[in-house]
């Protein structure tokens, strides 16, 4: 049966009131984003398998901004998926995660007090827990962009999820997750180089990760060393997150959208940023054209230099900035 493309209202937890892509007609709507490949958002109701139940209501207004309303997490997840889709299309020239216009789907209310979110390539879907105690659902926009971008990586370089390639896989998700947050430019959740600052997973108001100085989380590496690949992938991502910050914003102190950063470099290398738009275009071109499942930090350097050459030329300021940003995190060849 024919289902019209509709625009609903989402009262989210992290992004205020937003418009959502929905489907249906008067009296019966679903969280089916017909304008974005038909992306659907489901309620797992505490379950941990299957798709659960498609969110359906009669008003096309979803959630009330509070976690106690089960549509609220759905509104956040649906919005995050939509902004990621739009970012891929507008900024990367990519039609969906796999580049074929096919939507993924989202599942919220996974398990009991589950404090994580994840992408699963076998279902081509992402899943969000509700968090524990005072935590909120893990449905903030940078988390959504992060998880969906695991699908993007799987569909492109397919970076193996261990060693240095695993760190690059994780960093790719942080790079695009942050880029989606900036792209959405939502007044309730402005862009920053912090990951998970809205979900308070640590319970003390600190974010999960810091791209300007990854070691601020107490575990991530700021720069490359020959043992970095031994770290958990969420910590060996640090040098590549730091590279992206340096390439975008440059070294030293800076305040962006009210957040202060201070990005140190190895040997005090000075990096002049080229802006995040050029930086994510270079990273995406490198990921989708030059990186493979076994790409290391050294390989990522070569891949981004090739991408910068393709996009801006070998004699460009952008090429020089890429080389300098790698130098700033101790990758010189
Ligand atoms: N949220 C985590 C991530 O995307 C889940 C995991 O570690 N697999 O990396
Ligand atoms: Zn991840
Ligand atoms: Ca963030």
UniProtKB/TrEMBL annotation:
GO biological process: proteolysis
Residue numbers annotated as active site: 147, 234 (proton donor)
Top-tier EC class: hydrolase
Main location: secreted
GO cellular-component term (any): extracellular region
Domain Peptidase M4 stretches: 7-153
Location of the protein in the cell: Secreted
Family: Belongs to the peptidase M4 family.
Protein name listed in UniProt: Neutral metalloproteinase
Taxonomic placement: Bacteria, Bacillati, Actinomycetota, Actinomycetes, Kitasatosporales
